[in-house]
Amino acid sequence: MEEKFARPEIRKPENIVYKRTDLLVDRPLSYCPGCGHGVVHRLLMEVIEEKDIVSKTIGISPVGCSVLAYDFLDVDMQGAAHGRAPALATAITRLWPDRYVFTYQGDGDLAAIGTAETIHACNRGENFTIIFINNGIYGMTGGQMAPTTLPGMRSSTSPYGRDVDIMGHPLKITELVANLPGTYYVTRQSVQTPGAVRKTKKALRKAFDNQDLNKGVSLVEVVSNCNSGWKMTPVQSNIWMEENMFPYYPLGDIKVEGTLVEK
Amino acid sequence: MAKMIGDIVIDIERCKGCEVCIAACPFEVIAMSEDVNSKGYRFATKVNDKCTGCTNCAIVCPDGVITVYRVKVAAE
Hints:
The complex is a heterodimer. Chain A has helices at residues 36-51, 69-72, 85-95, 107-113, 115-124, 164-167, 173-178, 194-213, 227-230, 234-248; strands spanning 16-18, 57-61, 76-79, 100-106, 129-134, 137-138, 144-145, 183-190, 217-223, 252-256, 259-260. Chain A is α/β, with parallel strands linked by helices. Chain B is built from two helices and four strands. By secondary structure, chain B is mainly β. Chain B has one domain (3-73): 2-Layer Sandwich (Alpha-Beta Plaits). Chain B starts with a strand and ends with a strand. Chain A binds chain B through residues 1, 3-7, 10-12, 15-21, 24, 28-29, 31-39, 42, 191-194, 197-198, 227, 233-235, 238, and chain B through 5-7, 9, 12, 14, 16-20, 22-24, 35, 41, 45-49, 53, 55-56, 58-71.
């Protein structure tokens, strides 16, 4: 196809300021259009590339939309049973203390079935990074209500909105684990705007840098959209997320260098 | 002051038409195509010459389909 506004004179390798990292396998991502998973995958690989730790990194893929993360991330990966990624990461960090270990989990994985593993791994202060993608819903299985679903938010199993009298309150697991002595760095970020993406990348970089210090778990929560599950267009879902998710899940650092951040 | 001139190359076969890049572009350089790619998605295309190579579109693209080029030129 002919491009009308192409500038072939500046399309030279030395002028490239941004391109998809080679650590993402060269195949289309299986995620829905506009899904935040793709951005987080790319940022993760950029951080690993910049730190030059490709051969020393082991990732744990979860159960959920990102169960196929090992098809896209060109580092050593291990699959875990649903919710058990922190337990597996514990074993790997103890067997190979010099490796950089991360788990990549969704909210159904980390905050529902894996609550016990998450809390105990964070309380023991294991030396790995947890990347927690929170979209307030079970995206892969058809948009069912998750522990992180907002009050009044519609999902396929709460079609009239989440009623906290019957269905309980949303779980702020990130704040919960920040209060445990074993966590060293806990933060909540998002990936819907360029500024937010840059901040998330810095947070991921810091989380991996913390593994050099061996001080405890670093948890990076990324509040993300699920436009298919929320029944919106990607751009609408990003706006909805800013208006509804962020008041309940405020962005920013929660714990830095082992100390809770005063709000 | 020096001026930046940028260009973007979009991998149209990988683009899923989510339009997040359109919202991220400060100069309205990107719009959706009328055509569809082999998967049936309308894809992002460059529609004017105002690109400065700021990389905003590329870093929010969930599928990483945008490559950004940038050169610095002296102001006329």
